[in-house]
TrEMBL record:
It comes from the Bacteria. One of its GO terms (molecular function) is metal ion binding. The lineage of its organism: Bacteria, Pseudomonadati, Pseudomonadota, Alphaproteobacteria, Rhodospirillales. Belongs to the glutamate synthase family. Pfam families: GATase_2. Pathway: Amino-acid biosynthesis. Its EC number is 1.4.1.13. Residues 37-151 form the Glutamine amidotransferase type-2 domain. Its cofactor is [3Fe-4S] cluster; FMN. SUPFAM superfamilies: N-terminal nucleophile aminohydrolases (Ntn hydrolases). It comes from Azospirillum brasilense. Keywords: 3Fe-4S, Amino-acid biosynthesis, Flavoprotein, FMN, Glutamate biosynthesis, Glutamine amidotransferase, Iron, Iron-sulfur, Metal-binding, Oxidoreductase. This is Glutamate synthase (NADPH). The keyword RNA-binding does not apply. One of its GO terms (biological process) is glutamate biosynthetic process.
Length: 151
């Protein structure tokens, strides 16, 4: 019995095939995959809220204590925390403010860390992200600089 892969499964299969080819060509070493902190996602696939999901999220946050999620200035951070749901009204209101009609279905939000120093590198990364989002059939309403309090 054969089954077709969905887009996500196909993406993973392609990634693994590419990683294997790069490893064979000595252009990639999976052992180097330890040099950066990760992102954790804890979710109830059925969408039903439950306390155990929040408790597991808190456990995941505790696992990155070594980073502290605080920048060198001791004041700013990278937003480490728990978000229970994407605040649909907030982002749909923002979509309207920038001159678009908010969709009837739910919005998704991404957080992307771009290079800080090189504007050329920032733009190259932004192009890669946008290309992949559009390739999967999604729409991009825009990029938003997250407001910060520098006091």
């Amino acid at each position: 019995m054969t089954t077709e892969l969905n887009q996500g499964e196909q993406f993973v299969a392609d990634f693994r095939a590419n990683a294997a080819a790069l490893t064979t060509a000595n252009a990639y070493n999976p052992e180097d995959e330890h040099d950066a902190c990760g992102v954790g996602f804890i979710a109830a696939i059925d969408g039903k809220p439950r306390r155990s999901v929040v408790e597991k999220g808190i456990e995941a946050l505790k696992a990155v204590w070594h980073r502290g999620a605080v920048d060198a200035d001791g004041k700013t951070g990278d937003g480490a925390g728990i978000q229970r749901r994407v605040p649909q009204k907030f982002f749909k209101d923002h979509v309207k403010v920038i001159g678009h009609r908010a969709p009837d279905n739910k919005l998704a939000v991404g957080q992307v860390f771009l290079p800080r120093i090189s504007l050329d590198a920032q733009e190259a990364c932004r192009c890669i992200v946008e290309t992949e989002i559009l390739r999967f059939g999604y729409y991009i309403y825009g990029w938003r600089q997250v407001p910060i309090n520098v006091d």
